[in-house]
Design a protein that fits this description.
By secondary structure, the chain is α/β, with parallel strands linked by helices. The relative contact order is 0.15. About 55% of the residues lie in helices and about 10% in strands. The chain has two domains: about 110 residues; about 250 residues, Alpha-Beta Complex (Spore Coat Polysaccharide Biosynthesis Protein SpsA, Chain A). An eight-stranded mixed β-sheet has the order 3-2-1-4-7-6-8-5.
């Protein structure tokens, strides 16, 4: 048994080394998190429509509307469309007094995609060429004063879909309830995806991973889609997959920034992750085989699609191998302690597996906090705590995955909001 464990743990070490080598190209993406992105300046004033799905979001939409009212972009060149499902929704009373703001009521909406589709189709039917671009914004967001102006500048790039820089809205609040371990760790996901992923993708014309808030889409794309045909729980990830198939150009633009609200409790965080994981599974069923066929069956292999198809495989394999190794050593440790034997080998193997799983995540978190520290605005103590505790946050993904197997999250649910509206600092 001892010889088996020694061989087993040696194989584990060599496997981890092999996965690290395979993952090295993806690690190179991180370099672009530290590089400055050129700020674009456009002399053209595009007509822009802000589209806000806000069904029963009266608790948060007021701050968003105030930030829209303070935009530096000429108000004659952008309008706001707020989507609700009921004229009795308190959201209606909040938004109706803001200039250039239109209410769109879609009573039959069962998901965000249906809400967007109904509104966009109405705009296209009235005048398909009136707006040059559409910006989709979640109701819990707050826009920096130059957000629309910077998005207009970004359109100079010629890209068809543009992703903004997301900041943590919770950091604007003075309320201790708004800033928790969960909200801070959850907010880091935008830095992972955008600065440590999309920044490189933008530079090398690889399809970006699209987030459905603060997302600009040109009229050519909306007209081509004839609205918004996406219906999964993660319609933004569905757009990512479809943009690969349709060849839409994408870009991450750091200078357009908006604040997004993060969940502050384990329950809400877990429920949100369950919806995301469910949406990813839905999208993979609909698009993965099509993208694989598009990648491998053409005249040339489309290497740039590898990022979407296989980019995370080495990391996921590392996690699976690490957990299996830890469980195996833990099992043998229990057996050897009961029956007698050289249990130190199993203990050493278990500790090594846990160390190999934990240390890289600590180092990655530290690099992320260094790269985006200016935007995250964490104190030294908070930075220290998050660096060493953030790896444990990823356990929630596993919990959400398991819960998702038994809990139905296919229906659009009302998001629980944090009541810190009155304590928000000025943006």
């Amino acid at each position: 048994m001892e010889n088996f464990l020694e061989s087993f743990n040696n194989i584990f070490l060599w496997t981890c080394l092999g996965l690290l080598i395979i993952y090295l190209p993806r690690i190179y993406y991180w370099v672009y998190a530290f590089k400055k992105q050129q700020r674009l300046v456009s002399s053209k004033k595009n007509r822009i429509a802000l589209i806000i799905p806000a069904r029963y979001d009266s608790a948060v939409v007021g701050s968003l509307m105030e930030s829209i009212a303070k935009q530096t972009y000429d108000e004659k060149f952008f309008d706001t469309f707020v989507i609700v499902s009921d004229s009795a929704d308190p959201t209606v009373e909040i938004v109706k007094n803001y200039k250039n703001t239109y209410l769109h009521i879609e009573m039959e909406q069962t998901c965000k995609g249906e809400a967007l589709d109904s509104c966009l189709k109405k705009i296209l039917k009235a005048n398909p060429d009136y707006y040059d671009a559409y910006i989709i914004i979640d109701a819990d967001n707050i826009l920096k004063a130059d957000f629309v102006e910077e998005m207009n500048n970004a359109l100079k790039s010629g890209k068809q879909i543009i992703v903004s820089k997301k900041l943590i809205k919770n950091r604007l609040s003075k309320s201790p309830k708004a800033n928790t371990f969960f909200s801070t760790c959850s907010g880091l996901s935008y830095t992972y995806v955008d600065d440590f992923g999309n920044a490189f993708r933008s530079k090398h014309d690889i399809a970006c991973s699209l987030c459905g808030t603060g997302l600009t889409v040109t009229k050519e794309v909306i007209k081509d889609l004839k609205g918004w045909p996406y219906r999964t729980m993660t319609e933004d990830f569905e757009l990512t997959a479809d943009s690969i198939l349709k060849g839409y150009s994408t870009m991450y633009y750091r200078h357009a920034q908006n604040y997004t609200e993060e969940a502050t409790t384990f329950k809400v965080t877990c429920n949100r992750l369950m919806r995301w994981l469910n949406g990813y599974q839905q999208t993979n069923k609909l698009y993965r085989s099509k993208i694989e066929k598009d990648t491998w069956c053409g005249d040339k292999i489309k290497v740039k699609n590898f990022d979407f198809l296989y980019g995370l495989w080495p990391f996921l394999a590392f996690l699976v191998v690490g957990v299996l190794n830890a469980l195996t050593n833990a099992t043998f440790l229990t057996i050897l302690l009961i029956k007698g034997g050289n249990w130190q080998i199993a203990l050493n193997g278990l500790l090594l597996a846990l160390l190999i799983l934990y240390v890289p995540m600590v180092l990655y978190t530290a690099i992320v906090l260094i790269a985006d520290g200016k935007n995250l605005k964490l104190s030294f103590v908070e930075t220290f705590i998050i660096t060493f505790l953030n790896p444990f946050f990823f356990i929630i993904y596993a919990v959400a995955f398991v819960r998702g197997l038994f809990v139905d999250v296919s229906k659009w649910q009302q998001v629980e909001r944090v009541d810190f509206e009155g304590s928000l600092k000025e943006v």
